[in-house]
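S.,

Sequence below, as promised.
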Amino acid sequence: MEKVLVVEDSKAFSALLKKEIETQLPMIEVVLAADQRAAIEAIALAEKPFLLGILDLNLLDAPNGEIVDTVMAKGVPVVILTSTFSEQLQKQLYAKRVLDFFVKTSIGTIHSVIYFIDRFLRNGSVKVLVVDDSRSSRMLLLAYLRRYRFIALEASHGNEALTILNQEPGIQLVLTDYNMPGMDGFELTKKIRALHSRDKMAIIGLSAQGDPLLSSKFLKHGASDFINKPFQLEELICRIFQNIDLIEKIQTISETAEQARVASQFKSTFLANMSHEIRTPMNAIIGMTDLVLATPLPEEQQTRIKIVQSSADDLLALINNILDISKIEAGQISLEQIPFNLHERVENTTEILAIKAQQKGLELWSHLASDVPETLLGDPHRLHQILLNLFNNAIKFTEFGEIVLRVEVVPDPQHNPDGVTLHCCVTDTGIGIPPDRLEMIFGRFTQADGSTTRQYGGTGLGLAISKHLVALIGGRIWVESREGQGSRFHFTGRFGHATSDRAAPPRPVPPLAGIRVLLGSGHATSRQIIREMLDNLGAIVTEAENTEILETSLQTHYDLLLLDHRLLLSGCPAWNGPILALLPTTMRLEDLPLGDRRAELTVLNKPVRRLELLKAINRRLGRRDDAPSAADAPMPTQGDTLNILLVDDKPINQQVAMEILQRAGHDVMAVGGGKEALAAWEQHFFDLILMDLHMPDLDGYDVTRRIRLAEEARPEMTRIPIIAVTASVMTGEKEKCLQCGMDDFLGKPYRTHELLTLIGRFGKRHQSPPKRAVAGRIPALLDAAMDPEQAASGRRTFLAESSGMIESLRQTLEGTEPQQARQAIDPLKRLAAEAGALYFKMLVTRLGTALLSEHWEEAARLLTTLEEVHRQTRQAISTTGEQA
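The prediction came back faster than expected:
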């Protein structure tokens, strides 16, 4: 720590000065002295010289400025504080080699003193080069600079200056004279600027010629500033300080920008790694719950497994939100345009969150207007993400009541016949939002009240992400709310028209035409939604909102009683016909106090799906059931049985995937690494490879490249589909997989239907499997159709020269000499052609393309593969005996 001596007889001013200096410059310790005697004593007691002395000129025991000579005689540089100013006083002080002086007028004086101390301290690491053919001028400048602690270097002419600049790194300022023999200041400035930019080095031109045009000429040649000789010391130092400050600020900004870039890169890497590490075990959790739910289970166990599944979905949503924020910051989120069933997507979303809502006693429903199209063109994943975020937000801040999604078609302002605009509204009966917080809640990491974070949990990311996604689908998002009365979150979005290939043919007669249903429910919203479903199915519906109306209505004939669990609990009516009971997913029929009447009930879980409602009614009435149901569908198969190679280094992931695939009827071989995958592929016939990316020996990229190179070398070999299956889902990962030769991409964790649907895109290869023995592959590296004598000569040359050429190629590539590396490609290609080394030549060609495109990482990978193929080619030549 450096020490500064302050000699000041005003206790108030000295105390304030000490406080401000030590606060703003924590590396400085201030020692106070009230008079000359105390100052001398402090200097004598100091363990090392003071960095600086800040002296009041008028002291009781030194009224005429004697303190200046006293302190400077002890070797302490001096800055003066004075209450008065005059040019005569200024000249006297600079004659004594005082560094600077400040007039005590306001708090601004203290700030100026602090700036000077900070600058004086930092000068000790600043290099300045003085260029002047006049020795006396140089010595004067050097003395000035060293007095202010600069590291001062000297040169007597331009060439010497350039040599010093080349040999001495870190020079921040050059003071150069104009009129010098051989190379004047203009020419030197031009040459310096060719090597050093303005943000790295300042140049101040000096001249005694008095030409008013010299300053502008110097500046046009690249100088930062100009001073006429003879100059005032104060002006010179101010100009130097100003230019050095500017250079340091630019460097600080550059360093800050670089630190931000590195931090951003670190964040992206950290998020990618954490995402990968978390997704890997989640793949097992989600995969295993899917498998368990596909087996017969007691209702209680099935409910518990569904809760596990719901929690896993929540965790996955949180991870995806964090990754999406990172992608939004990088501008890397894009949309798909694929056909999807809107009704199924909305029902899936409400079903996913039903357990969470019902655990809080909330009703969760979705209602689509009758004119909303069944199938649309757009990005179903992003729509699902928006709905999921809004639903989760509503559930979090709602303690009782209901949450309802309503979807309707709104007029398209652009009148585009190829698209449709939807208006979606999620209404809750929660705590509401204060008016002054309505706009803020769409900001990142923001909730309406900071205290709610602890009470309700959450990151505050969902609404921020939703706002961005809604903008991407061509809509807007807004909220209406009254504190204590709930909220209504609205958003719009543009979608294209699409016709689903799986859409059912139109029915001439509604499937429930003429069926009379008595709908009993005390919840108005659920009655409205279920009634509209039944109306659309052709049923004749009567509503009963309480037990009294229900009993009265039962005097009329009905085919079916559809009864909410609340009315069931209030007393099952005296009704001998079929009853369909609407129960929350979290409620078991066995838990209801219904006695023997329990056996008469058929259960349908809320929120109700349209097709499940139709199916349950048909089944309860004993009617023919032709309504498809995802819940009752067996685990799907994908047509032909496929022979699949599964590559994954995590045994639990292997187990999950193998059980899914084998249940679907596929034959699977699992291996745990890249080398095992290559060996399996060479020795067995497969229809498809599911390829993990990150493995300890060879990663999935390298395995894929080697397989594709081998296929290119053997035209008779059919190209095998390779699907990346990975927990690495950061932006660009899918493109990277496709570029290296893979055919598709599936992120972990995946659902059962996602894996099987993706595999179903790749049919069985109906052909006789080729022989893949390793021993049969090596001779295929060579062209068997070549003239024997010509081949023998070319292969002898290959054995003699190829190793040295590859080593030279690696050295030039590692030495970042791409031009030389490119020049080595053609000779190596000719050598391979003359030897008939087909595989080797193909690799060299691809390496040349990578070098030409300046894809250095790809070139380095290809070179590694080339070295391995070089070894195999030499082995093949030796095996054929044609080297002699």
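The longest helix spans residues 233-293.

Coffee later?
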